[in-house]
Design goal:
single chain; 16 strands; Probable septum site-determining protein MinC; MinC_N; 4 helices; cell division; CAP/MinC_C; about 230 residues; Alpha-Beta Plaits; 2 domains; Pectate Lyase C-like; 6-stranded mixed sheet; alpha/beta; cell cycle
Length: about 230
């Protein structure tokens, strides 16, 4: 018999939204703000909802509708405390996500698990941009590193499948390792970014520690978590 489909284990990049109360309207408004800040990153992105910190009843139907209204795609629920919550979540169309291991606290209210993707052996020459990257512009260095010799404005987005070097001020969004390369690194002379991401792990501006704001930094992955340190000149 000819196979027409085959189930295999795999892993994908997923964001996890950690709820702290059951105010769905507040959650929806905050999600909308995040999606508007980085639409190319969050719009239509799948998200898992962790309810382990919520001690009150949750309207799962309303939660699902709110997340969809905010522009993201609700996939599953994690952190259910009892069978009743699981039954209610299933009735609303959520998958039940059972954590295989404890998840470490992250500075962001969003967490991302990264996709293990082998690095390409046919890397293209580095893409060098000598002019400022204006608000609304997007630059993608596919299968190559990216060097920006000027500033990146708020509302601009730069992406690379490899490393990103910014020899100016970064006020927009920088996404390194866009295809999952976990050895990708961001080097920045002046960090004031709306969003930084390496291989699917990301921080928003309010997650960046004050001591690194406006400073030269190196951002990379360490044990599958974002790590930031001062840039030694």
């Amino acid at each position: 018999m000819t196979k027409i489909a085959e189930l295999k284990g795999s892993s994908f990049t997923l964001s996890a939204l950690h709820l702290v109360d059951n105010d769905i309207s507040k959650v929806t408004n905050q999600l909308k703000d995040k999606v508007e800040l980085a639409p190319n990153f969050f719009a239509s992105a799948p998200v898992v909802i962790d309810i382990s910190q919520v001690d009150t009843d949750i309207n799962f139907e309303q939660l699902k509708a709110g997340i969809i209204d905010a522009g993201m795609i609700p996939v599953g629920i994690g952190g259910c405390k009892n069978k009743t919550q699981q039954t209610q979540a299933k009735a609303a169309g959520f998958a039940i996500m059972n954590a295989a291991r404890p998840v470490k606290d992250e500075p962001s209210e969003f967490l991302a698990e990264t996709l293990d993707t082998p690095a390409s052996t046919d890397k293209e020459p580095t893409l060098i941009i000598r002019t400022p990257v204006r608000s609304g512009q997007q630059i993608y260095a596919r299968n190559r590193d990216l060097v920006i010799l000027s500033n990146v404005s708020a509302g601009a987005e730069i992406l690379s499948d490899g490393c990103i070097h910014i020899y100016g001020t970064l006020r927009g969004r920088a996404i390194a390792g866009a295809s999952g390369e976990q050895s990708a690194t961001i080097f920045c002379q002046n960090l004031q970014s709306e969003l930084i991401s390496v291989a699917g792990n990301y921080w928003l501006s309010d997650n960046i520690q004050e001591e690194f704001w406006g400073k030269g930094v190196v951002i990379s992955l360490e044990d599958s978590n974002l790590s930031i340190e001062h840039l030694a000149l």
